[in-house]
Amino acid sequence: MQIDHVAIVVQDLDEALQFYGQSLGLTVAERLELPEEGVEIAFLPLGDAEIELLRPLEAQNSIGRYLTKRGEGIHHLCLRVADIEATVAQLEEAGARLAGSIRQRENGTRYVFVHPKSTHGVLLELYQPPEA
Question: Are residues 67 and 110 in the same domain?
C-alpha cells in the first residue's frame, strides 16, 4: 500500500495549474473531464505519487457542494492497493463505513471511498490500478 495521490478541489483549474505547473514546475501528466463523476481533473506526478486537481463541473454535485461549503483545499487522500476487495473486507471487518461501492474507470482502475467518520475526519480513497 502506498499513497497514490492527494486530491485538491479548486475553483479554476487553469489558475491552479499556473501555480502547480508554472510556479512549482510540475508537469501535467493527464487532464480529463469526467462528466459521469461531475469533475474535470488534472494529474501532476510528484515522485511516486501525484497531486490531483479537481474542478467541479456543476455546483450541485458532491465536489461542487464541497467547494461551496469548505472552499478550495485538500479533498481526499488516495491509497493504492493491490487487492481492493481484500482491503475493503479488512476495513469492513474492522467496522469502517464505505461512502459508496467499488467503481471502475474506463482505464480499468477500480476505486472506492471510505467515509470520513471511519477515518478520523479524512475522506480516504482506495485505488487499484489495472496492473495490480
Answer: no
Q: Residue 20: which domain range? A: 1-78
Please state, in angstroms and rounded to a whole number, the distance separating the CA atoms of residues 77 and 89. 19
Helix or strand (DSSP H, E) at 93: helix 84-93
Helix (H, G, I), strand (E, B) or coil at 88: helix
The whole model's pTM is what? 0.91
Q: What is the pLDDT of residues 4-57, one digit of tens each?
A: 999 999 999 999 999 999 899 999 999 999 998 899 999 999 999 999 999 999
